[in-house]
Write a structure and sequence with these properties.
Blueprint (H helix, E strand, L loop, with lengths): L6 E3 L2 H8 L5 E5 L2 H6 L3 H8 L7 E5 L3 E2 L8 H6 L4 E2 L24 E11 L5 H6 L34 H14 L8 H13 L9 E10 L11 E2 L8
Parallel strand pairs: 1-3, 6-8
Antiparallel strand pairs: 2-7, 3-6, 4-5, 6-7
Length: 240
C-alpha cells in the first residue's frame, strides 16, 4: 500500500497549469543507481518508480506565509492560523519557503497518478509537450527572440495581488502581449528542452536520460472517485 500523502515538487506556474487542466504530464529523470539494478521496464515501473498508478500526491511548490510568521516552523504557523500564498506580490508575504519542505496542509491541490511509463527524454513528441504544459505563447517568437529568458520567469503586473488559480488566467493576456516578441523559439520541442534544462541544469536534455513519464489528473478529495482509468505501459526493454 502506497503512502497517499507523498508530495511531488512543481514550479508554481506548473501548479497553476495543473489546476486548469493544461498540464497533465510530468517527466522525472530515472537515477542511474536504479537503472543499474533493473533489467527492464517491468522492474523500473513496478519495483522502483517513486510514484505508482493510483497514488494520490499533493503538489509541493514555493510558498510564503505572512511576514508575522517568518520565525515560525510550518507546523507552528499552521496551528496559529497563518495564511499561505504562492506569489511574492501578495501583500505582507514573508520569506520564500522551500518547496521540498512544504507540508501537505499548505498545499493547494492534489493529483492522482493514472499512468506510468519509461522512455528516453528526447523521444517526447509535440502532443506530449502540450501535456507537459507548453503552450503556444511559450514558443512563438518574432525575428529576434531572446533565448536567454528562462522558461519559468513570470512577467506579472506589479499591482497583481491574487494568489489562487484565477491569477493565471488574469495575467495570460499580459504575458502573451509582453513576451511574444522576445521569448524562446518557434519550435514546441525546443521550448520544452529549454524548460527541462532550466529545471535540471543546462545541457541535461542533450544527454537524453531515461525518464519516468507520469500522467496524472487533478484529484478532488471531496468526491468519490468514478470511472477509474489507469494505465501502465510495458515495452519490455533491457537497460543493461
Amino acid at each position: 500500500k502506497h503512502n497517499i500523502m507523498q508530495g511531488i515538487i512543481m514550479l508554481n506556474e506548473h501548479s497553476e497549469k495543473t489546476s486548469q487542466g493544461i498540464k497533465t504530464q510530468t517527466r522525472r529523470i530515472v537515477p542511474e543507481k536504479i537503472i543499474e539494478k533493473c533489467k527492464n521496464d517491468f522492474d523500473l515501473i513496478l519495483k522502483e518508480s517513486k510514484y505508482k498508478v493510483g497514488d494520490i500526491l499533493y503538489i509541493k511548490e514555493t510558498y510564503y506565509l505572512h511576514s508575522d510568521f517568518d520565525s515560525f516552523s510550518p507546523k507552528q504557523a499552521y496551528f496559529n492560523g497563518a495564511d499561505v500564498v504562492y506569489f511574492k506580490d501578495c501583500e505582507n508575504a514573508g520569506t520564500l519557503r522551500n518547496p521540498m519542505y512544504m507540508p501537505e496542509y499548505f498545499s493547494r491541490q492534489k493529483i492522482e497518478i493514472i499512468g506510468v511509463r519509461v522512455e528516453r527524454l528526447n523521444d517526447i513528441n509535440e502532443e506530449d509537450c502540450k501535456l507537459e504544459g507548453i503552450e503556444a505563447y511559450d514558443y512563438l517568437s518574432l525575428d529576434t527572440p531572446n533565448k536567454d529568458i528562462p522558461y519559468y520567469e513570470l512577467h506579472k503586473p506589479s499591482n497583481e495581488k491574487k494568489s489562487d488559480f484565477h491569477y493565471f488566467s488574469d495575467y495570460v493576456g499580459f504575458r502573451v502581449h509582453y513576451m511574444c516578441g522576445t521569448y524562446m523559439n518557434h519550435d514546441i520541442k525546443v521550448a520544452y528542452k529549454t524548460l527541462f534544462d532550466s529545471i535540471n541544469g543546462k545541457g541535461t536534455y542533450a544527454t537524453n536520460p531515461l525518464v519516468y513519464v507520469y500522467t496524472y489528473r487533478r484529484y478532488d478529495w471531496h468526491k468519490k472517485r468514478q470511472n477509474k482509468q489507469f494505465s501502465v505501459f510495458f515495452v519490455i526493454k533491457t537497460w543493461k
